[in-house]
Amino acid sequence: MPAEEAAPLAGLRVLEISSFVAAPLGGMTLAQLGADVIRIDPIGGAADVTRWPLAPTGKSLYWAGLNKGKRSVTLDFRGPRGREILKELVAGSGPDGGIVLTNAGFPWLSYAELSKNRPDLIHLQITGRPDGGPAVDYTVNAATGFPLATGPAELRDPVNHVLPAWDVACGLYAAVGLLAAERHRRRTGQGRAITLPLADVALAVTGHLGFLAEAWLTGDSRPRIGNHLYGGFARDFRTYGGDSVMVVTLTARHFADLARVTGLTETFGGLEQPLGADFANDADRYEHREVIAALLTPWFARHTLAEVAEAFAGTSVLWERYRTFAELAEDPALLASPVVRLISQPGIGEVPATGIPLAQPGVGDIAAAPELGADTAAVLRELRGE
Q1: How far apart are CA 216 and CA 235, in angstroms?
Q2: How far apart are CA 83 and CA 302, in angstroms?
Q3: How far apart are CA 130 and CA 108, in angstroms?
Q4: Helix, strand, or coil (residue 355)
Q5: Is 331 among the residues known to form the active site?
Q6: What is the CB neighbour count within 10 angstroms for residue 274?
Q7: For the residues 269-289, what does the mean pLDDT come to?
Q8: What per-residue confidence (pLDDT) applies to 300?
């Protein structure tokens, strides 16, 4: 590979001792940017080695999906020798190493312990709560209010989302945090101890999006509004033939194009004066969302998905058909995506795998996840000088 096309993080080495989503995703993000990420597990694997979904072979697709491009080492952490070997690997990982990413809270894995043999250690510890207590995505989500603002207005029970959003955000924060600390070390020669509580990730994002300030100032919780867009107009519609589509208008132009395509420009214009509204404004579209939706619903019900696609082609209207995971996997265009490749995953077979969506030189190849422990001997020889 020409020098100008080298992977952005080529030469960087990270030791990852992790399980679940956040830490493995952080490590894989670095690996897909070219870092040498060595995942170190206990003998037999950590708690996520058999987590669903599973391949027909019984192997975890979850584990394979979150560990692509890494090397795998297994050590016996139950005895002192395995822990000593880990310390040796941290100390011997070279000038671009000495970086540890973990969500395991063992004392022997702490910054204080590992930095004894590696003074410039960069150590990022993911915790559940700021006090070090346990928490996972679902419990953090419950504490921040999202499940009680999700779902139809008449529902009283909480609704958990399928996407582990806080884990994903935490993993990406972890990758950024390690890179920031590595830059600091290059400038100063000093390591860093970084703590990243999952609960703080959720709290920070809740604040960034304005949800926290809104509740603070108004004393009210955000209402449940089904599939409407809070503060604007967007929602789902059913087409002739039974397909569901999501339609989003974020600007006055989006809404004007939607009105024109559906033949409702004059109708909407005629409603503005009696309603005291201006549908060019987000707030007015939101306030009268049910009236707008009621007028649009018959148009979608009269048109097939193909007709909707043809009508919206060349306009600014934002829309998409709802699809299942199976429909996504069966889409002939899937493999045309620059972030998807068919790879041969050991123990599983040929599967579509996804890479990093940061398009840049040196990024693009997608390596399979290793077999658990497959690189133990090679890594021990390399990092311990055997």
Answers
A1: 27
A2: 67
A3: 20
A4: coil
A5: no
A6: 7
A7: 97
A8: 98
CA-to-CA distance for 101 and 72, rounded, in angstroms?
A: 14
Summarize pLDDT for 204-253 with one digit per residue, the tens.
Answer: 999 999 999 999 999 999 999 999 999 999 999 999 999 999 999 999 99
What is the structure's pLDDT at 386?
63
Secondary structure class of 374 (helix, strand, coil): coil
Strands (E), 45-148: 71-75, 99-102, 122-127
Beta-carbon contacts of residue 82 (< 8 Å; ≥ 6 apart): 42, 75, 76
Whose tokens are 């007028």? That residue is 295
Band (1; pLDDT cuts 50, 70, 90): very low
Quickly count: other Cβ atoms within 10 Å of residue 88's Cβ: 15
Q: What pLDDT is recorded for position 5? A: 81
Quick check: 349 and 369 in contact, CB under 8 A?
no
132, pLDDT greater than 80: yes
- Cα→Cα distances 137→104, 106, 199, Å: 16, 21, 8
Yes or no: say if 314 and 322 are a contact pair by the CB < 8 Å rule: no
Q: Give me the catalytic one of 36, 48, 137, 167.
A: 167
CA atoms within 13 A on the CB side of 54: 9
Neighbour tally for 376: CB within 10 Å: 19
- From the list 211, 239, 208, the residue with the least C-alpha distance to 150 is 211
What's the residue count for the chain? 386
3-class SS of residue 194: strand
Rounded-to-integer distance, Cα 292 and Cα 233, Å: 8
pLDDT band at 3 (very low <50, low <70, confident <90, very high): very low
The confidence band for 364, taking pLDDT boundaries of 50, 70 and 90, is confident
8 A C-beta contact, residue 206 and residue 153: no
Give yes or no for residue 2 having a pLDDT over 60: no
pTM: predicted TM-score of the whole model, two decimal places: 0.95
Least Cα distance to 37 among 78, 75, 76, 93 occurs for 93
Note whether 343 and 355 are within 8 A (CB).
Answer: no
